[in-house]
UniProtKB/TrEMBL annotation:
Name assigned to this protein: Uncharacterized protein
Keywords in alphabetical order: Membrane, Mitochondrion, Mitochondrion inner membrane, Transit peptide
Highest taxon in the source lineage: Eukaryota
Gene Ontology cellular component annotations, sorted alphabetically: mitochondrial inner membrane
This protein's record includes keyword Membrane: yes
Subcellular location: Mitochondrion inner membrane
Primary residence: mitochondrion
Length: 109
């Protein structure tokens, strides 16, 4: 009887030792809240960064205009820039043409 009991206790001990219990098996509430706060904050941090970069760019353009009598200097003409073999279906300029930022590609007569 004691032999059988010994075998049973050894088997039970082996089964008990083979299963491991981890303390971090399931994410706790702290980690879920931390992730939610991070995801909530990301867009607002990016918006502030873009606003600052655009403000710096606008002040730089304003400074260049002041140095050149209120007009931006001419951009150099290179053969590989603004090359148009034929017009787009909607005209010579790009689809989102902005006269303040892009060069007008309408052919001069």
């Amino acid at each position: 009887m004691s032999r059988q009991l010994s075998v049973l206790s050894t088997t039970a001990r082996a089964i008990r030792l083979s299963t491991r219990r981890y303390a971090t098996a399931v994410e706790g509430n702290y980690f879920v809240e931390r992730k939610a706060v991070k995801e909530h904050a990301e867009p607002f941090v990016c918006i502030a960064w873009v606003r600052n970069v655009e403000a710096e760019h606008a002040s730089h353009i304003h400074h260049i205009k002041e140095e050149n009598g209120g007009v931006l200097p001419e951009v150099p003409e290179y053969d590989y820039m603004n090359k148009r073999e034929k017009p787009f279906p909607w005209g010579y300029n790009t689809l989102f043409f902005n006269p303040h930022a892009n060069k007008d590609m309408t052919p001069s007569e």
